[in-house]
């Protein structure tokens, strides 16, 4: 028996990975993505056990997603920055400046200068527009310093970290500005959710869109005589995607609004809450915003010239230039996109806190860079994905809030997060060496 | 006959070094002109002025007898000048189609990248240039030297170049692939393209070129028709930096 075992095991060990790899190829799944999803699931399951099942409740999953949004939005932009071999250390500070501009717009400048009364329906939108323009312009300016004046991005944005945080301080005289406009607050998370019905609608629309995209891709391949996946693989992939989307919506829809809060809402309208009435939060608007940002950024990365040039310039700047790509202007664009995303994150972050404070976004630069890097963005340039960065942000946030729930000391929390960042990059390096990718 | 390209009295200096010093060369349709010289003789620099990578300090460039300004690679491409750089200038993280169409992507009617059409065009041209080429979807970093070379060549050929610049096209290639490039040069020449070829291999140059221009220390030593000179004549021009007394 034993001899038979030893003689067959090497062969079996050799043959074993092959069918699995083949299955992956057939499904055209990214093993890297699966690895990250696996790590994410592992983290959540471990914390769920450690917290006696409190981690994976609808309530905590809801909180986890709204806590992740701000960093995740910026992380998608950081992918472009790092892919082009730059870095942006100023994102947290830039978020603070944009937040200050928007807070001042809605509480001081618009009411006083334009005479719009507080609560005017235009106020939140004008404030957000001002924030987006501010973020875009500051980002473009930092991109100009980097791309045209050739100051290293590390220095430009290290300076920016000090400049913009304190520019924000001057705008508000160091005061905390609040409460922010009620409509504006709806972008923060718990104060702006879609409710059960619209969450299902969004879920169904998203599922149909994903199926449509899969189908269109397959049809396009057939039209060009490229090999296509077998139909069963296509259906399996579609089913996994549909289950993931609808499962996520179902979880958010099972988080019910506390009865006391509902009763207050009815009382505010001068009504009496019917007996046995319940309502669920559903999909937060901020999470919907993140999903939209993720889709737009993925399309930019994969389907536009801008995205193609970002990756080409990151892979080989000289080749990009010799191909007639204006790499300097490209740098300006990349940093401008980063700035606009900081402004969007500023909307979410300040709306969640219901006010603007000076320390908003402090240390976000580190979280954002860590999210992008854990998500597989290579600091050497040319490699990175939007979904990876979002998953990275989710993993980081899960670790942080999981440890908080378990009752780990704050200093130890940071030690763990820092170690995980370094470890994740090490694993990535080993993975790339093994597979010969990148 | 009208020359396709005339570069007249071109000079360029980097810092204090006169990399190209008052050099004039020309190229006719259906002709291969070789540039020879030691490392640092100024061949690549001269040719990079034509391809738009560098801007000359003085001198002028004429295409079809008309003076043109080439300030960027984009300007050069607009004049149907295509370059295969010594470094190949490929983005290693991207697959062949993305590299082939870099800067000139095919797009759908909505303005998005048409990756399927680019892939299918890439398959078509690669089938012609290098039938063994299969790795269309993988990053070019996964390709062999010869395969990378054929991507770079495909990029130049696909866009109907009239003037082709090849900087050391066979330096990294094996025997078989070198032969393939030589055949391709002859084919393109027959189609009426003008080709500037840079190489260290004098024997290869004697076989492929109609004329050779020899450079040394940034200056033009001379331009000769290959049938008028021997390999030794050319070698002495490269080494001595002056025209050999013709034996015959």
Automatic annotation (TrEMBL), chain A:
Transmembrane regions: 33-50, 62-83, 89-110, 122-141, 147-164, 197-215, 235-255, 276-301, 334-354, 366-390, 410-431
Keyword Membrane: yes
GO terms of molecular function: transmembrane transporter activity
Pfam families given in the database record: BPD_transp_2
Main location: membrane
GO CC term, one of those recorded: plasma membrane
Keywords of the record: Cell inner membrane, Cell membrane, Membrane, Sugar transport, Transmembrane, Transmembrane helix, Transport
Mode of membrane association: Multi-pass membrane protein
Compartmental location: Cell membrane
UniProt keyword annotation of Disulfide bond present: no
InterPro entries per record: ABC_transp_permease
PANTHER family, sorted: ABC TRANSPORTER PERMEASE PROTEIN YPHD-RELATED-RELATED (PTHR32196), XYLOSE TRANSPORT SYSTEM PERMEASE PROTEIN XYLH (PTHR32196:SF32)
Its biological purpose: Part of the binding-protein-dependent transport system for D-xylose. Probably responsible for the translocation of the substrate across the membrane.
Protein name per Swiss-Prot or TrEMBL: Xylose transport system permease protein XylH
Upper lineage: Bacteria, Pseudomonadati, Pseudomonadota, Alphaproteobacteria, Rhodobacterales
TrEMBL record, chain B:
Gene3D superfamilies reported for this sequence: P-loop containing nucleotide triphosphate hydrolases
Subcellular location: Cell membrane
One family name in Pfam for this protein: ABC_tran
Keyword Transcription regulation applies: no
A GO MF label: ATP hydrolysis activity
The organism's place on the tree of life at top rank: Bacteria
PANTHER family: CARBOHYDRATE TRANSPORT ATP-BINDING PROTEIN MG119-RELATED, GALACTOFURANOSE TRANSPORTER ATP-BINDING PROTEIN YTFR
Protein name, entry field: D-xylose transport system ATP-binding protein
Source organism (scientific name): Roseinatronobacter thiooxidans
């Amino acid at each position: 028996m034993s001899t038979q075992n030893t003689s067959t095991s090497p062969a079996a060990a050799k043959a074993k990975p092959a069918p699995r790899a083949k299955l992956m190829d057939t499904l055209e799944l990214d093993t890297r993505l699966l690895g990250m999803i696996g790590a994410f699931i592992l983290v959540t399951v471990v914390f769920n056990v450690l917290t006696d099942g409190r981690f994976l409740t609808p309530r905590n999953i809801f909180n986890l997603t709204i806590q992740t949004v701000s960093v995740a939005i910026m992380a998608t932009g950081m992918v472009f920055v790092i892919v082009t071999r730059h870095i942006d250390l100023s994102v947290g500070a830039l978020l603070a400046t944009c937040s200050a501009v928007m807070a001042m717009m809605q509480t001081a400048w618009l009411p006083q200068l334009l005479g719009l009364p507080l609560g005017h329906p235009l106020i939140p939108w004008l404030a957000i527009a001002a924030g987006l323009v501010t973020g875009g312009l500051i980002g473009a300016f930092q991109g100009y310093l980097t791309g045209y004046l050739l100051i290293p991005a590390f220095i430009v944005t290290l300076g920016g970290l000090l400049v913009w945080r304190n520019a924000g301080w001057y705008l508000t005289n160091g005061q905390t500005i609040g409460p922010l406009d009620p409509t504006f607050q709806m972008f923060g998370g718990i104060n702006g959710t879609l409710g059960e019905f619209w969450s299902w609608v969004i879920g169904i629309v998203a599922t149909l869109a994903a199926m449509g995209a899969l189908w269109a891709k397959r049809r396009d391949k057939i039209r060009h005589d490229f090999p296509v996946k077998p139909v069963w693989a296509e259906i399996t992939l579609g089913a996994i995607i549909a289950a993931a989307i609808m499962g996520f919506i179902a979880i958010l829809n099972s988080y019910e609004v506390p009865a006391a809060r509902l009763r207050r809402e009815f009382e505010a309208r001068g009504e009496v809450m019917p007996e046995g009435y319940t309502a669920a939060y559903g999909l937060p608007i901020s999470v919907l915003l993140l999903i939209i940002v993720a889709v737009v950024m993925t399309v930019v990365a994969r389907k536009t010239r801008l995205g193609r040039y970002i990756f080409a310039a990151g892979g080989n700047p000289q080749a990009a230039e010799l191909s007639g790509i204006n790499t300097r202007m490209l740098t300006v664009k990349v940093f401008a996109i980063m700035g606009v995303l900081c402004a969007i994150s500023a909307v979410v972050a300040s709306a969640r806190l219901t006010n603007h404070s000076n320390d908003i976004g402090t240390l976000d630069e580190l979280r954002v860079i860590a999210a992008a890097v854990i998500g597989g963005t290579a600091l050497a340039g040319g490699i990175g994905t939007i979904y990876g960065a979002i998953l990275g942000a989710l993993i980081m946030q899960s670790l942080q809030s999981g440890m908080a729930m378990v009752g780990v000391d704050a200093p130890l929390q940071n030690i763990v997060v820092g170690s995980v960042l370094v470890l994740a990059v090490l694993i990535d390096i080993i993975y790339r060496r093994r597979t010969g990718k990148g | 006959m009208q020359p396709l390209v005339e570069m007249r009295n071109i000079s360029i200096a980097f810092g204090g070094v006169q990399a190209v010093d008052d050099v004039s060369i020309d190229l006719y349709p259906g002709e291969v002109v070789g540039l020879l010289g030691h490392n640092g003789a100024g061949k690549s620099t001269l040719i990079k002025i034509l391809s738009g990578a560098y801007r000359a300090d003085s001198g002028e460039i004429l295409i079809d007898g008309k003076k043109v300004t080439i300030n960027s690679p984009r300007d050069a491409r607009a004049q149907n000048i295509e370059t295969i750089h010594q470094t190949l200038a490929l983005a290693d993280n991207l697959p062949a189609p993305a590299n082939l169409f870099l800067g000139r992507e095919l797009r759908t009617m909505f303005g998005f990248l048409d990756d399927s059409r680019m892939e299918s065009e890439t398959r078509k041209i690669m089938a012609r240039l290098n039938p063994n080429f299969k790795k269309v979807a993988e990053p070019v970093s996964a390709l062999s030297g010869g395969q990378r070379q054929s991507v770079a060549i495909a990029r130049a050929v696909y866009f109907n170049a009239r003037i082709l610049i090849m900087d050391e096209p066979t330096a990294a290639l094996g025997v078989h692939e070198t032969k393939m490039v030589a055949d391709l040069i002859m084919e393109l020449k027959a189609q009426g393209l003008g080709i500037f070829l840079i190489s260290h291999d004098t024997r290869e140059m004697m076989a492929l070129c109609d004329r050779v221009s020899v450079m040394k220390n940034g200056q033009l030593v001379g331009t000769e028709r290959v049938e008028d000179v021997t390999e030794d004549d050319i070698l002495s021009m490269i080494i001595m930096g002056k025209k050999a007394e013709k034996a015959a």
